[in-house]
Amino acid sequence: MKLHEYQSKRLFAKFGVPIPQGQVASSPQDARRIAQELGGPVVVKSQVLVGGRGKAGGIKLAATPDQAYQVASQILGMQIKGLTVKQVLIDQASDIQQEIYLGIVIDRAQRRAVMMASSEGGVEIEQVAQENPQAIIRVTIDPFLGLRGYQANQIAMGIGLPREQFREFAKIANGLYQAFQAYDASLAEINPLIVDKDGKLLAVDGKMLIDDNALFRHPDLAEMRDLDEEAESEREARLAGLSYVDLDGEIGCMVNGAGLAMTTMDLTKLFDGSPANFLDIGGGAGADKVATALRIILADPKVKAVLFNIFGGITRCDQVAQGILAALDQVQPDLPMVARLVGTNEEQGRAILDQSPYKLITAQTLADAAKKAVAASKADIARA
Ligand code: GDP
Ligand code: MN
Is residue 101 annotated as part of the catalytic site, yes or no? Predict the structure, then answer.
């Protein structure tokens, strides 16, 4: 789950990271009121879950409350990389002398969190990594020891901060690491961390990615989810307990088990087709869940054929077959459908499908099923 800038910064601030004073507004009137309360110049910042808002015109300075009103009315409703701006953050403007990058990610090879910093802040770190890799300082954090004082100093020195800023920098680096750990983040980033005209450090931008698998430990964060981040179908799937990822192809896949779903996608590719989605209905999925899954697949206009690949272990094939029929009754599709049901109660499952008024192409092996699904998806394209 991605957090907005203002959400990330507030979490960082809980751990002692200094952030500008500010409030979120969803109307120009709110923006004016907040600017008035803050006093002095402000920066109006679009809150959308993509980077590069500045370049896209989603970040503007305003000298007066009236200007904040004007700028907010320009930015609110704006489209940035396909996302509509619904909220702006009104922050007290900073007088920026220097922009630093400071971030933490997980290095899977080392199985450790790694803190990265660069004196070239404000620019995306991927760009620095490409153009000027030696400008990035990396420090690996031992999970049992945490970020050590000497490591923070090593980073501060590496990015060329003067000695009198080391202590303040260490406090920020520590706070960022604590927030990263406390909220089970996979990324926590301040870009830029600025040095202002008085030599003070301030986190002007914030970004955080939270591990979805840890959200059960953070009900307060789950409420922060911006529903725009997710496609409608992905949201519906999540609420139904299905693992679903929307893809570009034509074959809607319904599979039980993540490994089997990956294999099914591979085989459709092998036979020159392309999957419209990854969908794992999980073990022991009853008729209701199957029906929801099928509705999600069929709601996708890209889908030209559906491939059911069910291995009946815990999930019984007859239950899945009933789910398929229930869903077909609800949706009444006129797409070709290929079914491969093997394992527990496969005969009953097939018998149930045979009684269906909807034509289902059956297959014995996965390769056979994949070939038939690919052919069906192309036949449909040829018809259209
Ligand atoms: P991003 O473009 O989505 O990464 O958004 P940022 O919050 O990082 O802002 C982009 C750039 O706008 C920063 O790198 C700064 O150069 C500038 N900026 C942001 N806040 C302020 C501010 O308070 N004062 C000034 N002068 N510039 C700012
Ligand atoms: Mn930024």
Answer: yes
